[in-house]
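Worked problem 6 (solution included).
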Amino acid sequence: MVDPANTPLGKMLLEEITPVVMVLCTPLVEESCLKNGLSFIQMLSPFCNFTNIDVPVRTASDQPYRLQKFKLRLFYASDIRQPNLEVAKERLKQVITQAGEKDFSEMWSDPPQVNDLLSRPESEILPSWFQFFNEELVRTLSFSDHEAFDHPVACLLVVSSRDEEPINRFVDLFNTNKLPSLLNDGAMDPKILKHYLLVHDNQDGASEKATKLLTEMKSTFGPNDCQLLCINSSQDRQIHHQENPWAPFKSDALPTENLGCFLNFDDFNEIKDLMQELSSKHIIPYMEQKIRVLNQQVSATRKGFRNQIKNLWWRKGKEDASDSPNGPVYTFSSVESQIRILGDYAFMLRDYELALSNYRLISTDYKLDKAWKRYAGVQEMMGLTYFLLDQSRKEAEYCMENAFNTYLKLGSAGQQNATRCGLWWVEMLKIRDQIKEAATVYFRICSEDPLHSAVMLEQASFCYLLSKPPMLHKYGFHLVLSGDHYKKCDQIKHAIRTYRSAVSVYKGTTWSLIKDHVHFHIGQWYAFLGMYDVAVTHMLELLACSHQSKTTQELFLRDFLQIVQKTGKTFEVLKLQLPAINISSLKVIFEDHRTYASAAAASVKESVWHSLEEDMIPSLSTAKSNWLELQSKLMPKKYKESNICVAGEAIKVDVEFKNPLQISISILSVSLICELSANLEEMNSDGNGSNIELQNDENKTSTSTRDIDSSSILSEVDLSLEGGETTLVQLTVTPRVEGILKIVGVKWKLSSSVVGFHNFESNSLNKNVAKGRRKAKYSPDNYLKFIVIKSLPKLEGIIHSLPEKTYVGDLRHLVLELSNRSKFPVKNLKMKISNPRFLNAGNQRELNVEFPACLGKKTNVVQSGGHSNINKVLQNVFLFPENISVQEETSLSWPLWFRAAVPGNISLYVTIYYEMEDVSSIMKYRTLRMHYNLQVLPSLDVSFELSPCPSRLQEFLLRMDVVNKTSSECFQVHQLSSVGKQWEISLLQPVDSILPSQSLFAGQALSCFFKLKDRRKSSTSEDSIPSPSLLLQSDVRLGPQGNSEALFDVYSSPLADFHNSERLHQGMPLQGNEYKVDFVFISQLLKGNIDSGAPNTPLLISHHACHCSLSSMSSISWLVDGPQTVQHNFSGSLCEVNLRMMITNSSDAVASVRISTFDSPSSSIQSSDASAPQPGLPPENQAGWCDIPVVNDMKVITSDALATRFTKSVSLESVSQFIWSGSSSTKLRLQPRSTAEIPLQISVFAPGIYDLSNYVLNWNLMPSSEEEKQGEASKSSGVCQGYPYYLTVVQST
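Solution. The predicted structure is:
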């Protein structure tokens, strides 16, 4: 049987219930001790704990016993008081916080599993700081008036030899005004043992004076109660103690602090002897004598049958008294207090039998007096005494429970006492292996203080874990409760520790809701502490939470993506749960005669291509059989049932993605994972051939296809899934060499930072394979394995300089490049374009023209009504000249004209038909399908109003209104031309007077008035009327007077072609009407955010109106300068763009300027779908590209509708994905009338258009000293939001 004194509870009691010595000392004593970095009590404390004092003790009985372990507790008189509740709570909070900081270093590693914990001893399972916290919690009840073991047994009066009149100082120290309230209020006897100590600092000189003072002290206070202590014998501060005994008693000491540096070995021994003598020769004998005296008094008054009857008779009737928390007041001289002191003294001297008999005696008295707090305290001590005597366990537990319940009945007045009683009771139950009951007591200890409750709940959880058998559900549940309480007290690290321990409990169970709760909060708390990698690991467990509500799913996904974004890393997750992949719906499709220039073209519905190509391709009767089918008949028998693909041609795989959530999600960069082997003999074997694994580099992004290596190309697809939506995604792999290609799986990116992988397994697949129009049967082993044969003729096409984003009216000269990478030429080329309003084929002689000079009006050339490009023949099919062919490994370039006709997201479809020569195949032709998506933004809103002139015949007044609908661009007006019958147009007033700069800035409007004159003579003869076929135009230059820049010819290709397309689109005849007039308004964008496709070439903007019927300056100014458009390959790295800011001080004072940048929310610009502005920001502070609703860029307004003209507002969307990578705040000092230049830099993470106005400029003018002296200084300052500056970043090819 284990000795109770050696158990954790026994050791705690021997530490906490020991005699208290009150210390009274002078300031000079403290001054001498502080030279060693210690107070007087700290200097003595290491020598107050005796493990083998070996002192004989005789209390009430005649049989002495020897006391081996003994400890003194030293306190200053000012500290002998009941601790302040708030201060005690703060101290406990510090203990918990420090423990959290210490334990958190282990939070980077994986938490131990439950089975591993159960295999460890208890000492390794429980956190080490629990015991220290419990001890601190017990100490918050020190010096209560109803418990005598905290009352001072003796008083140590300490005076320095340097004090004046030391004898008088001793007398003054024990002044009643300086004594604790316990002595002054009558709670304890003030006549306690006094011991007088004279401290001499050897650094102050020899000890002769101190010796004389000691003699005087002995003659005054008695020879046995006076002692001399000499300290600081070292003079050079060179004493270093290897095992410093003072470190545990000075918690705030620095690791480099040398405690006790002036105390040498002699001082060390002298202090030790002092405390040994004080304990063995003074305090212990004093307590023995006190016990014997009190025992005689109690025996005379309370013990014996007669005294008991007398006591009961005297207390008769008190049971009718009203209850009160403390009951009646007992002074130290009362019999009840004397019995309690007798019991506590006996307990501290290890005479537990005597202590128990007195506790029993006084317990009844307190109960009859209804002094419930004192009654509970005695019951508590009885339970501890039973435990140390190792007698009746039942009695011990009864006393502890009785005391605990009595404390709780007192409410808040007894809560702390109940906590202490519960802690001692728990330790008692643990020692007796009653672990489950101990957990119940921990739960009952929980108070209104959430921090204390958190610690108790956590200790209760470990009891459930250590119980036999382990109660894992309750263990996990109490850990979660504890962590929740920790979080309420801002103890995040402790909350993480408890929740992490709970993870192993719920892992592999069906308790999904509590698992989600645990993982979500752990992820949030880790992110709060900046440990994003670990946070992401836990948040991944929440992605497929289909059992949660929509609001909860949004919360989980939003927090997950925010945490991932903060990491700045890319996470790779095998079998990522979001989205779910339906492997059984996998489908493989090959190319036949239909080929595609891009993945975007391949995703277009077949009906769109069919309608575009039905007038181009030969009758289907000539190509009833697929060429791949017939060619497969010529192959060896062992390849007949194998998948065949052509080197250089894409294999398309349809994969079904399902969103298990109720909210929409975006999936990026979906691509295949493939393996390619060059050995064809491996088709029917499982040999260990050398395979090349093909997958996209997760550190790169792409929106079409990417060259992985010399053997294959893989495609990438981005998609968005609504809640519960299932969608089919087509992915491609293009082998370049012959061999065997195996599709292994699929990968994708969730919000560009999380990469998911899913491998295809043949046993879970439906064999759904299509080669063009043919379905075949394949064995499971060969389902995703392909034989790659040699290359066949196939054209590749690209339209150079076709913009992804532009403005309405943008007119460009483009080049179509067709490349034939095979060894066989192709001929008989045809082309059909889906929307002639946007794209027209030019003439071959226009290939190398200089744009826009080629559009200039030729002098001395008679205008005709015919149009160019006569080989734009039948049914909008463009026939290339018969002598044109694309030879082997060459390319053909052909001019195209592009004009952005209307705003919005525009899809252009181009099909090129070609026939092949010298190929032993029945496939005589192939088609190249090209698809381009472009975003057209509104530019200028142009409207015309035509009204007759009241003073002259055949003259009309034309009003042209132009509004710049962009947010940052500046357009330069160039010319206005009329198209129709013979109209003469002229300005009523120079444009210089209306628009001096000839530039129309963002949001600016311009109104110009023209005179339109009918040049036909007033005659009824047919000869006087021009022929309808001769449609002439009249032009007006809108630039400055004297400008020699040539006018553009609106009646020649391509302006005339696009104008006719506009008329045809509106259902108007090409030859016009005598009562109608058409206008062409031409402007230029000299330097904007849209790349013109050629260096130093402005954008040419043309607006066509058809069928117009005759019915304060600041002291500080600045400019941000830099590139407007940047091309960058984001596959390799982010894009860094250097800018500069020119700041000018136009005042006569010195200016202090500070530029502060801040980052905007990031998002790529992929479409023009309107979205709401960012909450919390005014429109002028929002960054991103301008999204304007789709409207016509040209309006024709009659005189009746003129009053209804209005301007629509422009909204900005915060979608930028960049950060300022330079200094976030720059401050400079500008001299009067000076200019400074500041470099800026941003880092862009994705293509898009970005508004770099997210900075603030603060300026302050500082007056000169002379102005201050004259009192004329006027302080001026301002805060300015950054000007809009748009930067276009384009993905380079």
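Discussion: The chain has six domains: 20-83+147-286, 302-432, 580-594+635-789, 795-937, 940-1109, 1116-1165+1215-1291.
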